[in-house]
């Protein structure tokens, strides 16, 4: 089973940016932990991070026929990007959206995710552990689809 992990803008700054919100772990550290967990379950992960909306759209489109599911944190684009939402709808793969922080506890402009309307489920507010939760959920959903 293959899963694409897609990380949106400024997530390359994890460990540096607003640690009181996002914690001290870097994106590389989060990915290393995910890799270890996935390997135990025979899951292959493909990591991608971009600060550019169009590159994220391109990456989502490439997922078609290449991977079994998508784990995505569209970051700030969650709140604005119809293009990313449309790309997710177009490929129509099992997809989990993850947010490190609880977007419902934050500024009003973060409380709406437009991309969430195109995904299977959303995990928000559990810190980096949300990526593990998302991976567990996605692995289960994909096995059900394949069964
Ligand atoms: C985020 C929440 C977004 O509002 C913000 O723009 C991010 C990260 C999160 O993971 O909590 O960059 O997606």
From TrEMBL:
GO terms for biological process: amino acid biosynthetic process; aromatic amino acid family biosynthetic process; chorismate biosynthetic process; quinate catabolic process. Its EC number is 4.2.1.10. Pfam families: DHquinase_II. SUPFAM superfamilies: Type II 3-dehydroquinate dehydratase. Substrate binds at residues 73, 79, 86, 100-101, 110. Keywords: Amino-acid biosynthesis, Aromatic amino acid biosynthesis, Lyase. It is an enzyme of class 4 (lyase). The record marks 17 as: Transition state stabilizer. The active site is at 22 (proton acceptor), 99 (proton donor). Transmembrane segments: none annotated. It comes from the Bacteria. One of its GO terms (molecular function) is 3-dehydroquinate dehydratase activity. Pathway: Metabolic intermediate biosynthesis; chorismate biosynthesis; chorismate from D-erythrose 4-phosphate and phosphoenolpyruvate: step 3/7. InterPro entries: DHquinase_II, DHquinase_II_CS, DHquinase_II_sf. It catalyses: 3-dehydroquinate = 3-dehydroshikimate + H2O. Catalyzes a trans-dehydration via an enolate intermediate. Belongs to the type-II 3-dehydroquinase family. This is 3-dehydroquinate dehydratase. It comes from Halarcobacter ebronensis.
């Amino acid at each position: 089973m293959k899963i694409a992990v897609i990380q949106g803008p400024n997530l390359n700054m994890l460990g540096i940016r607003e640690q009181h919100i996002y914690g001290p772990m870097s994106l590389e550290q989060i990915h290393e932990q995910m890799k270890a967990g996935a390997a135990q379950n025979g899951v292959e992960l493909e990591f991608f991070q971009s600060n550019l909306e169009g590159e994220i759209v391109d990456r989502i489109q490439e997922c078609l026929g290449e991977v079994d599911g998508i784990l995505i944190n569209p970051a700030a684009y969650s709140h604005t990007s119809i293009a990313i939402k449309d790309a997710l709808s177009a490929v129509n793969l099992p997809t989990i959206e993850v947010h490190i922080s609880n977007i419902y506890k934050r500024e009003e402009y973060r409380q709406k995710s437009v991309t969430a309307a195109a995904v299977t489920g959303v995990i928000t507010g559990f810190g980096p552990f949300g990526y593990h939760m998302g991976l567990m959920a996605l692995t289960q959903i994909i096995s059900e689809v394949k069964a």
